[in-house]
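Training component of the fellowship. As part of building independent skills, the fellow (R.M.) carried out the full modelling exercise for a liganded target. The chosen ligand was JFZ. The inputs are recorded below so that the supervisory panel can assess the work.
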Amino acid sequence: MNMTWIAGLLVVVLLAAGAAPRAAADGKKGPDHDKRIAWWREARFGMFIHWGLYAVLGGEWEGEDYGKEMGGASAEWIMLRAPVPREKYAALAKQFNPVRFDAGQWVSVAKAAGMKYLVITAKHHDGFCLFDTNATDYNIVDATPFQRDPIRELAEECRKQGIRFGLYYSHAKDWYHRGRSEAKRPTDSYVKMVQAHMREILTNYGDIAVLWFDMGDRFTSINTSYGRIVRKLQPNTLVSGRLRGSEGVSDYKNMPDRTIPPGNVDADTETPMTMRLNWGYDRDDDNWKSVKEILELLSLCVCRGGNMLLNVGPTPEGTLMPEEIERLTAVGKWMDVNGEAIYGTTRGPFGYDFEWGAVSSKPGKLYLHVLKWNAKGIKLHGLKSTVARAHLLADPKRKLTVDQDVEAGTITILAGTEAPDANISVIVIETEGEVTIDRSATGKYHWDKSHHRKPAKARAKRSRRR
Ligand code: JFZ
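Fellow's submitted model of the complex:
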């Protein structure tokens, strides 16, 4: 056996065992990447906001429902899907007057939910700008009776309340300025507008934590030019994973929408997730995920090494929906108690889930996210270290019995008949020394919650309403 071969084998074995540390997505990151992304790795949880002219329609056009709950695209796609003629869609701006918008309240809801960053649509595929810009009149200040700049108000509130502020920007799709297909090379004037937007966004609103590009076209050098402007104007801004052609520019990967990593990931990865089916406001999408479902998705996402950006789709009046506030408040209550198992953790050291849930970790500590309580014991296998202490985050005084069978390589934790948390209870295990894992151990169990619920009527024909 020659040494190269052994080294190669070692790499394969380490990769297979998931031993590699959380690393940059493609190895092409500059030396500043780790520094730039450190806060994001800590944060783990953020708010996504889809808001724009489509909110006025709430998923419906001329009596027909195009929402995802009807098997259509998501509500913010209505301009393309109905389709709504360009001038008729643009006329919606005159009706967009979200006088009840209160940036302070939105940010405080995000903060109370335990979210550490917020990303809002500066411009979605419909091309309408939710920020003040000199590069097009098709923006909230010039084209609506509202005349305020919500991006400015949110940026200021985020700064005031201490959460990071980011912007989503649809660079490839722009059904108003570019036309309805991305197959054709964008015109110079379109590219100039996007570049002007980049400069405005990065100079007028203070620190931009993330620029969330979406759905790249094949004109990679143009895409890269956008990313370069970001790097130049705000070197610390994170560039999301959907700027096609941006391999050297983007800072992390994005999962497909509403999908948590199906297994452990080592690259920096983020899941965009909805609370119901649609991203943008939809008048009658009642496919709300329960608080428990949301927490399960968050726990599993984090235990596998991902961040989660959880979406709200505010109303045309400028309010968050009561259902959103209710869920986010409950998530926040859970985070107040269990945040230690989320923030600053990395994926669990095992390459598998357990029958009761999954594990996140910190040096010398394992956090057992118990999705399914078992009065007969929570069983862990594959841990070689000795357990020094164990406690429940939701009930630190409760006495736990840890039964470690070194021979069998199993640990059984008896933590009482009742789960201290009706949703997810977290058991913290502290090990003697650092956490060591039996690499030969395997797990059969897999929590199949990688994706959100499918629409109930996914294939139903759009029905004429009323
Ligand atoms: C995009 C948008 O089209 C959608 O409206 C929303 O903003 C969402 C967050 O992003 O949709 C996508 C983009 C990428 C995939 C799926 C939907 N993907 O990679 O599977």
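The panel noted the following from the submitted structure. The pocket of JFZ is lined by residues 50, 74, 76-77, 214-215, 256-257, 272, 279 (CB under 6 Å). The mean pLDDT is 90.
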